[in-house]
Amino acid sequence: MEDANRPETHRDLNDPSFLPMFVSEAFCLLAERRNQLESDGVSSEAMKPLFLKCLDYAGKMQLFRTPQVCQEARQAVEDTPLTKFEQTALLNLCPSNIEEAKRLIPSLEMTEEATGERRIPDDVLEAIVDRIQTIRDHQ
């Protein structure tokens, strides 16, 4: 059994063609689809119950309110040493500091085997977490 806390477990998630979606992005897409269906004359009652449950859940769990804010949040984690799994987890969980981030996402504390250095230095992780919090606070 693979350990989900180890970055190498996330290797499939790092395929360049794969972009895991965080909950707020999912909500924006589902809400857009609902609006398209409604404009096509489809009532809420005619929509599939699973679609409506997913929309409801994503609406309750979303932390970023608009597609523009979602895009800004996504950009805050791109081009960082984070794996795609870690990027998505940070955007879903929005930890308030790096200690909380490391408790919630243990792979953030991993070290490089060859050097013994942290894979993601604390100052880099702190800058990412702070940027996410700033985006969330100013939406």
What does this protein look like?
With 139 residues, the chain is mainly alpha-helical. It is 53% helix and 0% strand. The protein contains six helices and no strands. It is elongated, with a radius of gyration of 17 Å. The chain starts with 22 loop residues before the first helix and ends with a helix. The relative contact order is 0.15.
Features:
mainly alpha, 53% helix, 0% strand, elongated
Condensed summary:
With 139 residues, this protein is mainly α. Helix content is 53%, strand content 0%. The longest helix is centred in the N-terminal third of the chain and has 17 residues.
Give the CA-CA distance, first to last residue: 41 Å
How large, in whole angstroms, is the Cα Rg?
17 Å
- What overall geometry do the principal axes of the alpha carbons give? elongated
Strand composition percent:
under 5%
Runs with pLDDT <50, length 5+?
A: none
- Counting helices, strands and paired strands, the structural category is mainly alpha
What is the number of E strands? 0
Give the ordered list of helices and strands: HHHHHH
What's the story with the biggest beta sheet? none
Average pLDDT: 91
How much helicity do the residues have?
40-55%
Note the total helix count. Answer: 6
Present the secondary structure layout.
Blueprint: H1 23-39, H2 49-61, H3 67-77, H4 84-93, H5 98-104, H6 122-137
Helix pairs in contact: 1-2, 3-6
